[in-house]
Amino acid sequence: MAHTVAAQDIATADAAAHDWWRSSVIYQIYPRSFADSSGTGVGDLRGITARLESLADLGVDAIWLSPFYRSPQKDAGYDVSDFRDVDPLFGTLDDFDAMVARAHELGLRVIADIVPNHSSDQHPWFQAALAAGPGSKERERYIFRDGKGEHGELPPNNWESVFGGPMWTRVTEPDGTPGQWYLHIFDTSQPDFDWELEEVREEFDGVLRFWLDRGVDGFRVDVAHGLIKADGLPDFVQDDEEASMGGGAATQSPYWAQDRVHEIWRRWRKVTDEYEGQRILAAEAWVYPLEFMANWVRPDEMHQTFNFGYMETHWDAADLRAVIDDSITTFGAVGAPSTWVLSNHDMIRHATRLALGKDTPQGHGVGPASPGLPDVEEGIRRARAASLFMLSLPGGAYLYQGEELGLPEAIDIPDEARQDPTWHRTEGERYGRDGCRVPLPWEADAPAYGFSPTGDAWLPQPAVYGTLARDAQSGVEGSTLEMYRAALRLRREHRIGVGSGDVAWEDSPEGVLIHRVGDIRVIANVSGAPVPVEGDVLVTSHALEDGALPADATVWVRVRG
Ligand code: NOJ
Prior knowledge:
Blueprint: H1 2-15, E1 25-29, H2 45-58, E2 62-65, E3 69-70, E4 82-86, H3 93-105, E5 109-114, H4 124-132, H5 137-140, E6 144-145, E7 168-172, E8 178-183, H6 198-213, E9 218-221, H7 261-273, E10 280-283, H8 290-293, E11 304-305, H9 308-311, H10 317-332, E12 339-341, H11 350-353, H12 376-390, E13 396-400, H13 421-425, H14 464-467, H15 470-473, H16 480-493, E14 504-506, E15 512-517, E16 520-525, E17 531-532, E18 536-540, E19 548-549, E20 553-558
The site of 1-deoxynojirimycin has 9 residues, from loops.
C-alpha cells in the first residue's frame, strides 16, 4: 500500500548508515492543542497536516502523536472507545492517511500512541461486560471482582488511582442491584484490560497491524509498566509519591512493572519486526532505578524508553552528570541508546519546572496558588540552556510541542476551565496537567494566536503565548525557535547524537558541564561563575558577556586547530 512504500523510501535513505531511531529527534504533537483547522477550538489532523512543513523546517526526524482515536475524551483521548478509528473531533481515517503521506513526503516519520492498559468505559467490550453480568466471558476481558464486606460494599483491595481516589468502581448489575467492582489504574472511565487473557493479546496484535499497515513508523506505548497485575491483587500501602505515574517505589507495587509484562513486549517486537523500515516501540515506563527501566529495551523488547530519570533531574550540574553517565552505561549494557526528554503532556513544562527548584511530582502540576512560581524570563532562559545541552547528548531526544518556542506552563487557568481528571478527582488539591496542554501560538496577531480560525481554544492561552508565537520568533536572531533550528541543523551535519558511545567529558569548574563531540565543544554553565569561551560560537542559548558564558546558559563552539 502507498504509505508503506513511502515509509520504506525514508528508511532506504539512511538505513545503510545507521538505525534511525538510535539518534532521532522525535517531536511530540498533542493533537488537541497543535493546530485546529475546523474552528472547534480543538486541534485536528488536517490542522497537523497543514503545519507539518514547519516541523520539517525545524529539523526533527519524526513526530509522535498523542491519541487521536475514537474516545469520549474523559482523559484527553487516553480513554479509547475504538482503537481502529479516528475520533470525529480530530477528523477521519482518510485525514490520518493524508497526514502520514504528507509527513513521509517531508521526510518525517510518524509514531502513533497506543494505549493497551485500558479502554474507555464506552468501548463495546466494556459495555458488553456490564450487560453480561458476573461470571460471564465478557467480564473476563477486564478486571471485575466481588467487593469485600458483608454485602460486597467495600472495594476488593486498597489500591489508589493515579488520578486520586480508589482504583475500583462498583457497577450496578443488569438486574439493578449493586454489583461487582472493576479496576482502573486511572480514571473511572478507563477500565483496565485483563492481559492474562489471550483474546486481549490477540486483539492488540490486530490493532498494531492495523496502524502499521497504514504506514506508521512505530508506537509510543502508554503505561508500558502496567498491564500485568500481581496474582491475587494483594493490598498495597502507597505513599503520595507513588500515586504519580509510578515513580518512587513503583518496582514494589503490585500493579506496576510485574515481570511478566515483558512477555507482551517480546510478542509486540515480533509484530513490528515483520514490517519493513525499522518500525519502533518506545516505552512509557515510569520505573526506577534506570537499571530496572533498561529491562524494557532489552534486544528482543522495545527500541527506546523515555528517560524519565533525566526528565526529573533538577537543574544541577553534578546531578545531571550523574544521570547522564548512569543512562549511557545502563542502557548501553543492554545495547540500547539512551533517550533524553525535558517536557511532555504530563509534566510541568521545563521552562517553568527547571526554575521551580523543588520536586514537582509528575502529573501534579502548578497553578495560581502554588508557592514559589518562577519569573517567566528566568524560566525560559534556563529552559533554553537545558534544551541546547540535551540536544548535544548521544542517543535519541524527544521534544514536546511548544518547547521550541520556550513556552512556559500556563498557570492562570480558571478553575472552571480545567479539564484534567486529576484536578477533578483530587477536588482541586492537584492542579494536574492542563497547564502544559494549552493550544500553541502560531501567529502573534491572529485570533487564538493562529491556533484556530474562529479564535476558540479548548484551554485559555496566556498573554505571554502571544509574545512567544512562532511568527514572532521565525527568522529572529537569538529567538528560541532559531536556537532549536540551528541546533538541529548542526546535530544533523555533525552527526551529533549518533553512536551509543560515552560522553567525552572535559574538566570543568564547579556548576559547569563541558563535553566534546568531534570538533564541537559544548559548555553548559548550570550555576557556575562565568566561563571564558574560546573558538567559534556555533549556537548559544544566551549571548556571551565579555567573551564568557554566564550561568543558566549553554554554548556550542567549534574548537580551532
Ligand atoms: C500516560 C499518559 O501519558 C497520560 O496522559 C494518561 O493520562 C495516562 N497514561 C493514562 O492513559
